[in-house]
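QA checklist item 7 of 12: single-chain prediction sanity check.
[x] sequence parsed
[x] length recorded as 176
[x] structure emitted
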Amino acid sequence: MIVPVLVVVLVLVNVLGDDDAAGRSGHSGPAQLDGSTAPQREDLPPLPVEVPPVTPEADAACPALMSALPLELAGERSRPVQSDSPFAYAWGDPAVVLVCGVDRPEGWVVGASAIQINGVSWYVDTADPGTTVWTAVDRPVYVEMRLPASVDSAPVTALTTEIAAALERREPDPAG
């Protein structure tokens, strides 16, 4: 006769804190957990985002930037987007939208000025009274941020660190 056997395995895990936090070597005991949860995406419907076709340059450069983008930007949580490219991201409502791998801005021509923020050069287009379009013009691909006119440059300034770290600087190339 075969007798069924029930085996129960109990695994206990001790989450250890930082060795240096206790001022001594070895484990300092359980880590202090505050019960807070990581930021989550905003519970909003997907935002339709028009994007240009993905180029080989965008495929090579944009994944590094997209993986570095924060879930919160200037106090706004990220939200889902609906686009034909994986290189679009948005935060808040009204939305701040980032698209990596866009075309050179039409107004970015020889003689047009750029604004330097934390080592990233931006061309700013204010032609649309409802939206300010910031485009990073000194990276291997152009990175566009669309901000509602009611939003200041804080989201752009906040993302310059991620853009500079993820995308190597190149000499700006305005249209002739």
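[x] summary fact logged: The radius of gyration is 23 Å.
[ ] second reviewer sign-off
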